[in-house]
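Course assignment 3, question 2. Fill in each field.
Student: A.L.
Task: Predict the tertiary structure for the chain below.
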Amino acid sequence: MDAAESPGPGTGTGRGTRSRRTLGPVALVVAGALSVQFGASIAVLLMPRAGALGVVTLRLVLAALVLLVVCRPKLRGHSRADWGTVVAFGAAMAAMNVLFYQAVDRIPLGAAVTFEVLGPLALSVIVSRRLVNLVWAGLALGGVVLLSGGGFDRLDPVGALFALSAGAMWAAYIVFSARTGRRFPQADGLALAMAVGAVLSLPLGIAESGSTLLVPSTLGLGLAVALMSSVLPYTLELLALRRLPAPTFAVLMSLEPAIAATAGVLVLHQDLSMVDGLAIALVIAASMGAVRTQVARKAQ
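Answer field:
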């Protein structure tokens, strides 16, 4: 490289380096979201064979086994409060998955994730306590009305209610995930919570699917769901959060309804109308707005 090509001080090289440093973790988050939603589409394909509860069991049990082997969490040296937190985290995780898979068994994947994301959105609005959040809540409500056809006449109302309930559990999952992260080193708490969720879901999966869960092809697809929907995205998110501000991470997670709708179209051949696209866009905009409002409040 000659002198003309060599970057000197003040030429913006530092800015470019910072951009690349930001782009790396952003790519990890997006990759994790893609993995989660395309994993969910595989789960939908597996449901006729194993049932919704059976798929939940396969996902949690196999993901727990992988995480326990990789993380090898210590069982000693934790207080009763520590264990209470990790049990609550695992219970929220199990409930969130059971409700969500019941939803996607009844309504399109994109619609289910759009309803589900309302849980974290409501949590963000409540925490912020600012009047402007009524705007974001109104946008989200408009998206829900559009998506439901103005009265849930276009979607299975039971599926929509399952998705909304999954959103409430997602909000609880976020709260207990943060508390578990403060009490357990690295991913130990996640591995233990996943094991709790697996134990809670196991009787449900056995009751619905029985020995079908042990069929090699079913196990193989279940392992793919576990890796794509739990192990890989959680690992990518953990790596990303070491270099990416939490608010930026939250905004990126708001894109999941769009990714889910794309996975539904490409893998499950589910229709996505212009109205559906607008509804999903409104919920994404509401989520991003709520997160940015919360960030602005903390900066004051």
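Instructor remarks: Confidence is low (pLDDT under 50) at residues 1-13. The CA atoms of residues 140 and 283 lie 5 Å apart.
Grade: pending
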